[in-house]
Amino acid sequence: MGVGKTSIGKKLSKQLNWKFLDTDKLIEKKIGLPIPEIFNQLGEDFFREQEKEILNEIASLENVVVSVGGGLPCFFDNMDRLNNIGTTVYLKLEPEFIVQRLLESKIKRPLIEGMTPIELQSFIENKLSEREDFYKLAYFLVRPDNRTISEIVDLLIKTKPII
């Protein structure tokens, strides 16, 4: 959340002339509910099963850039599956940068709504700590830090991690 997956993914897909997919948006469309409502009404286990199903559905697609929800790589064998079907990129941003971006963002994020900056910092640090081992399995690690979206996309294209 807040590292730029969607913005970078959309720009990268446009540069490559590929299709852009967001697994959360695909799940929302399939179920007919926003992600927070899926969690509230149907539970996290149901949501994680949907992520797995969506991953299976997109596995055979070619010429796509896919943005996945932050938890997707951490369940089942999803990270191995992602690595087997494409080139994975971990956008690693330090917690304080994520917090700053989220506080400045105009996007409504129910999961963090009402958190103080200190609570948000703690939440982000905990999530990253829980998920880091999965994220590190990605083929490429990119540090967005103070780079623009265009600079990150250019870096990805120049280093040719896209296969």
Q: Can you walk me through this structure?
A:
It is a single chain. The chain has 163 residues and is mainly α. It has a single domain (5-157), classed as 3-Layer(aba) Sandwich (Rossmann fold). It has eight helices and four strands. It has helices at residues 5-16, 23-31, 35-42, 44-58, 78-85, 95-104, 117-135, 149-158, and strands at residues 19-22, 64-67, 89-91, 140-142. Strands 1-2 form a two-stranded parallel ribbon. It has a two-stranded parallel ribbon with strand order 3-4. α6 (95-104) packs across α7.
Count the domains.
1
- Strand content of the residues, in percent? 5-15%
The quaternary structure here is single chain
Distance between the termini: 25 Å
Report the principal-axis shape: globular
**N-to-C series of helices and strands:** HEHHHEHEHHEH
A few lines on this structure:
The protein is mainly alpha-helical and 163 residues long. It has helices at residues 5-16, 23-31, 35-42, 44-58, 78-85, 95-104, 117-135, 149-158, and strands at 19-22, 64-67, 89-91, 140-142.
Which terms would index this structure?
single chain; Rossmann fold; two-stranded parallel ribbon; two-stranded parallel sheet; 4 strands; globular
